[in-house]
Write a structure and sequence with these properties.
With 446 residues, this protein is of the alpha/beta class. It has 3 domains: 3-45; 57-204 and 267-444, Alkaline Phosphatase, subunit A; 206-252. Helices cover 35% and strands 14% of the residues. α1 (3-16) crosses α2 and α9 (277-291) packs parallel to α10 (320-340). The longest helix is centred in the N-terminal third of the chain and has 27 residues, at 19-45. The radius of gyration is 24 Å and the shape is globular.
Length: 446
């Protein structure tokens, strides 16, 4: 740093401490100071080498609605909604991580928790709006009116691509949503989605009335029309993206990829161990990994079959144990199944929700929203597993030590997959850091 830079930054910092800064200098100076602090942090971060993980794939299990951390991964004293006593709704049980307990309904995950890490100190500032909080957890940034940021899945797809020419880079097992999408990265970093594990992606299955000969004629005609269109049109990224998307769709609708969805080929005992529809999605995610998909998001309780999902206001609390047990069966089986197939060290599993819930029960016996302290689980992925990161207070309402921001969480995911989270992407000509000043949870890397 030269003398001018030092003097300039000192002046900005001194100015920010005076009333003159607030009145005479105003917002532009404060913004400039913030940019200088960003540069300082970025410059300082380079002094520590960025960890490089061993994972090749990622499965994100999304608990939509807001799962309660103190009723799952960070249990506290027992509460009672009828007596208005704040606390956990269930008893807790010991785990394979010494000194760490989880909810009694996570009894299958508990003995294998040494393959997991629990990050109990995740936080952000979005509280009352599910969509905004979901967007924050997927993109790591607040929504704006000027730029649509890419999701973590799309960033991984953009940076790593597919692991096989016969598979897409990114699959969403759930309903399509901008929050999960590529934002400014464009359609090539987008997802293929499905809601039915047996049918596969919508539109990929050929009608029984169309035989192979007819399909071949259609593809030849489409190829000719695409070539004529390219000749007559002015070049551009949008046209290139469309052309590549058509080619990928034709390739993926073939038998090589579609056989991944034939879950009947799996042993019945294994399918039963995974459980119901959510479990079958997790089983499918393992098969998608084996086919070469890089990033998969699996939505839990896709159709809110219990009426409320993880959004446990009022009497939704009464059904929460069903969701926890369903998660327990599917997640524990997925971990052991990946391990048996020698894929666990290569596959990072992330279990996340848009926020947690407070210890106090509301008037209807349920819970409100809480984003200032909640839990995210990371398993496999070649990390230093068997750790509990962060501590919350006696009721899980505040972080006591080792806070982990959403950008930090994203940086950890990226680093585990060999992506440098300090790199920049480009929204047109505008450079955009992959994370909003996120730093990986370095304790999880060797």
């Amino acid at each position: 740093m030269n003398a001018f830079e030092s003097t300039r930054r000192d002046f900005l910092r001194q100015a920010s401490l005076t009333g003159l800064a607030a009145s005479a200098l105003g917002t532009p100076w404060q913004q400039l100071l913030a940019s200088e602090q960003h540069a300082d942090k970025k410059h300082g971060a380079k002094k520590l080498p960025m960890p490089v993980g061993k994972a090749e794939h990622c499965i994100m299990i999304w608990l939509g609605g807001g799962s309660c951390h103190i009723d799952t991964w960070d249990p506290k004293r027992k509460g009672d909604p009828k007596a208005k006593k704040a606390g956990s709704y269930y008893d807790s049980i010991p785990t394979a991580i010494e000194g760490t307990e989880v909810c009694e309904h996570l009894s299958k995950c508990a003995p294998i928790l040494d393959r997991f890490n629990i990050v109990r100190s995740v936080h952000h500032e979005v509280i009352d709006e599910h969509a905004a909080a979901t967007n924050r957890m997927h993109t790591g940034r607040p929504t704006t009116g000027t730029i649509t940021y890419p999701s973590v899945g799309s960033v991984v797809a953009h940076q790593r691509g597919s692991a096989s020419e016969h598979a897409p880079a990114y699959v969403l097992i759930g309903y399509p949503n901008v929050t999960r999408g590529p934002g400014f990265l464009g359609s090539q970093a987008g997802y293929i989605y499905l809601t039915d594990t047996s049918a596969g992606p919508s539109g990929f299955t050929r009608s029984s009335r169309v035989n192979q000969s007819r399909q071949d004629r259609r593809e030849r005609l489409l190829t000719k029309m695409r070539a004529e269109f390219r000749q007559k049109s002015v070049g551009g990224q949008t046209i290139q993206d469309y052309d590549q998307s058509v080619a990928e769709a034709l390739r993926l609708s073939g038998p090589e990829f579609m056989k991944v969805f034939q879950l009947d080929n799996e042993k019945s005992d294994l399918r039963n161990s995974y459980g119901g529809e959510f479990g079958q999605r997790c089983l499918l995610s393992r098969r998608l990994i084996q086919s070469g998909v890089r990033f998969i998001e699996v939505s839990h309780n896709l159709n809110f079959v219990n009426g409320t999902g993880w959004d446990t206001h009022n009497d939704g609390q009464l059904n929460q144990h069903l969701l926890i047990k369903e998660l327990d069966s599917a997640l524990s089986t997925l971990v052991l199944d990946l391990e048996k197939n020698k894929l666990l060290d290569k596959t990072l599993i992330v279990v996340a929700s848009e926020f947690g819930r407070p210890a106090k029960f509301d008037s209807g016996g349920g819970r409100g929203h809480q984003s200032k302290a909640f839990s995210v689980v990371l398993a496999g992925g070649g990390l230093q597993n068997g750790k509990t990161i962060g501590v919350t207070n006696e009721l899980g309402e505040a972080i006591v030590s080792r806070p982990v921001s959403v950008p930090d969480l994203h940086a950890t995911i990226y680093a585990s997959l060999g992506i440098d989270p300090s790199e920049e992407l480009f929204a047109g000509d505008r450079p955009v850091p992959i994370t909003d000043m996120g730093d990986p949870v370095r304790e999880l890397f060797s």
